[in-house]
Design brief:
1 helix, elongated, Porin, mainly beta
């Protein structure tokens, strides 16, 4: 998990410093309110962000399992898994000329496992995503986040991480 956090921060720092040339306007969340893309991390899959205001957005994700790859008791106990998350995000300092923005959210993730032979499982986790958003072009957002999470039944605290990119329509 430390490697994921370090990698996330390194990628965001490199991209932020490389895009700090002349101020360039972004349309992300201003003229283009809906973004779709890919995410990698504890739940790799598809992501969608819908801006509701210049300072808030709804973040949705659909994660897919990896089969027998990267088995773990928490995320993928050697079976097919899928997940859905919905988070409400508060964005800090987002205007047309910002290259970097901070977000803090509150939401939930729903995990579904299929172990085969008619055995399945379901789990719900409350989460608090904290991350950085980098506006690369007028239409592209790259982001990294960590999300302290608390799962119910069985009770357990864990940390999720994600790196992703969204193209705005």
């Amino acid at each position: 998990m430390r490697k994921l956090i370090f990698t996330t921060l390194t990628v965001v720092a490199v991209l932020a410093t490389s895009s700090m040339r002349a101020a360039q306007a972004t349309e992300v969340g201003i003229q283009r309110p809906i973004g779709v893309g890919l995410v990698a991390g504890s739940s790799p899959g598809l992501t969608m962000k819908i801006w509701t205001r210049p300072t808030s957005a709804l973040d949705l994700g659909l994660g897919f399992g990896l089969g027998d790859f990267a088995c773990s008791d928490r995320f993928n106990p050697c079976g097919q898994r899928s997940s859905f998350n919905a988070d409400y995000l508060w964005q800090g300092g987002h205007s047309a000329y910002d290259a970097l923005s901070f977000h803090l959210g509150l939401g939930a993730r729903f995990w579904f496992w299929n172990y085969g032979s008619n055995t399945s499982d379901f789990q719900v986790a409350a989460r608090v995503p904290i991350g950085l958003d980098l506006y690369v072009f007028k239409w592209l957002e790259a982001y990294g986040e960590i999300a302290p999470s608390y799962a119910f039944a069985p009770d357990r605290f864990f940390l999720e991480g994600a790196l992703g990119a969204r193209m705005y329509l």
